[in-house]
Amino acid sequence: MDPDETLKMIDEFLQARKTGDEVDEWCHNLYEWIEKGGFEPNWNRYPLGTEYYKCREVSERRNA
Questions:
Q1: Domain membership of residue 30 as a residue range
Q2: Contact 3, 39 (CB under 8 A)
Q3: What span, in angstroms and rounded, lies between the C-alpha atoms of 13 and 38?
Q4: pLDDT on residue 64
């Protein structure tokens, strides 16, 4: 997995004002990657994607 590319996809998806379950799946995959010891993406590069991911991260932690 490339966490920067995943965060970029999240950011671009949201900027395009798209809706769909795939963005949540990308967030879930990124969360699992990081939890398993993978390196984190450059959070500052994609602010909208980061904000959305951080909101989803709270949900992930509750369900863990």
A1: 3-63
A2: yes
A3: 23
A4: 67
